[in-house]
Design a protein that fits this description.
By secondary structure, this protein is an alpha/beta fold. It is 34% helix and 13% strand. Helix 8 runs parallel beside helix 10. The longest helix has 28 residues. The protein starts with a helix and ends with a helix.
Length: 430
């Protein structure tokens, strides 16, 4: 994929090549990021009608209490999406969890049934009905449909969020320091990237999807769920290249918006006084192993980008040690000079300065009451009862094509990692 602006952040900052989401799905991942906590602690294992509890400590409130203005523009996914509601009505809730101000909008799915400043702009432009009809047709007829959104480029949801964020940067004149959370909805299904990005990648130019997986024990609850809800049928496989190409286009669109934000900061002389962090809540299977969507412990879904550009620090290039997405909060607090607790998060600032010791040597992720651990170049996933069903040597098998969980030659490694996982689960509490 062509991502020149993210490449620039990577060159000028630090890339964490093995950052794993605290959960490979939206709500528990976002709750965990904000609270510095694992799904088992929060009792939020999956997407659903969950509301982030304002009584939970979180690092955005800590920033605000220290004197920062804390703003959110875009999606947050921190409370249930209620059909017929307006995202502007969430102001009291967002203030209760630490945001000074917010211009919140829904992603494409949420915007089918909710209102926001974004849907108001679509209505005024005469495209809202067409957008909603298009999404209804996709989800009811062909969820794998690859075609440009009726919104077009200028009104596309990620373009809209980027434009609102740029306007906020260019007009900001307050005296207090500022934290801005820019929540892009993409790249994410539906596969509806608008021109010109829709045509950026030919279907034949993208890497082929990994073959269907038949090497996980079918008795495991999560595996059964994958097979039932997210597995592609034989007739769908010819669409995979198109959806992968469209997803690449969506990533390039996000990259362009990141570049525009950088330009706005630079134009105001603020770039060298701004720390930029790029992160995501989960990935997308995009046809790999014959799967779509997320909610698996394969790297496509659970390993996420993390780039930190601190103009005050020399880039260390890349950090390959496993880290967790919830570590972002503690990192932000330390970079901002704010002394506050951040749950289970551990600041990554020492790794931004060079190799050093860390309290956590592994990365833990949880979903649907199942857990995954990555340590020392190995990955192990276990069911709710602690029985392993996935074991990969990520150094010799980075594509995760050889599941070693039943191989007697790797029994000692399975036992060793199972103990690491059990210890991490016990430490996290309930």
């Amino acid at each position: 994929m062509r991502t020149p602006n993210l490449d620039r952040l990577a060159r000028e900052g630090t890339v964490f090549t093995n950052c794993f989401s605290v959960s490979p799905t939206c709500v528990p991942a976002r709750f965990g990021l904000l609270a510095g906590a694992y799904p088992q602690e929060l009792g939020v294992w999956e997407n659903g009608a969950h509301t982030f509890d304002s009584r939970w400590p979180n690092w955005v409130r800590a920033l605000r209490d220290s004197g920062y203005r804390t703003s959110l523009i875009g999606t947050s996914h921190l409370r249930p999406i209620v059909a017929g509601s307006h995202f502007g009505e969430n102001g009291d809730f967002l203030r209760s969890i630490g945001f000074t101000d917010a211009e919140e909008v829904g992603g494409p799915r949420a915007s089918r049934t909710t209102e926001s400043v974004m849907t108001e702009a679509w209505r005024e432009a005469g495209v809202l009905d067409a957008f909603r009809a298009d999404l209804s047709d996709r989800y009811e007829t062909d969820p794998l449909a690859v075609r440009p959104s009726p919104l077009g480029y200028e009104l596309h949801y990620d373009r809209f969020v980027g434009r609102q964020a740029r306007a906020a940067i260019e007009s900001y004149g307050r005296a207090e320091p500022w934290f801005l959370w820019v929540g892009f909805a993409g790249p994410h299904e539906p596969w509806d990237t608008p021109p010109p990005f829709a045509a950026s990648y030919a279907a034949g130019s993208v890497p082929a999807a990994k073959p269907r997986f038949d090497y996980l024990p079918s008795s495991e609850p999560l595996v059964r769920r994958i097979r039932q809800s997210a597995r592609l049928g034989a007739g769908d496989l010819d669409k995979v290249k198109s959806l992968r190409a469209d997803y690449a286009g969506a990533a390039s669109l996000i990259d362009a918006e990141v570049g525009a934000l950088i330009a706005s900061l630079d134009g105001r002389g603020l770039l060298e006084n701004t720390i930029i962090i790029f992160n995501s809540d989960h990935g997308e299977m995009n046809g790999d192993f014959g799967l779509i969507y997320k909610e698996t412990f394969f790297n496509e879904a659970v390993r996420v980008p993390l780039v930190v550009r601190d103009p005050r620090a020399r880039s260390v290039g890349h950090v390959d040690a496993p880290v967790e997405s919830l570590d972002v909060g503690a990192t932000i607090l330390e970079l901002a000079g704010v002394r506050a607790a951040c749950g289970r998060a551990e600041s990554l600032v020492p790794l931004l300065r060079g190799p050093g010791p860390r309290r956590k040597r592994s990365a833990l992720s949880q979903f649907a009451r199942e857990s995954m651990i990555v340590e020392g170049g190995w990955k192990l996933a276990a069911n709710e009862d602690g029985e392993p069903y996935m074991l990969f040597n990520l150094e010799s098998d980075p594509e995760e094509l050889r599941n070693l969980v039943r191989d007697p030659a790797f029994r000692s490694k399975r036992v060793e990692l199972s103990e690491v996982l059990r210890r991490r689960i016990d430490e996290a509490g309930a």
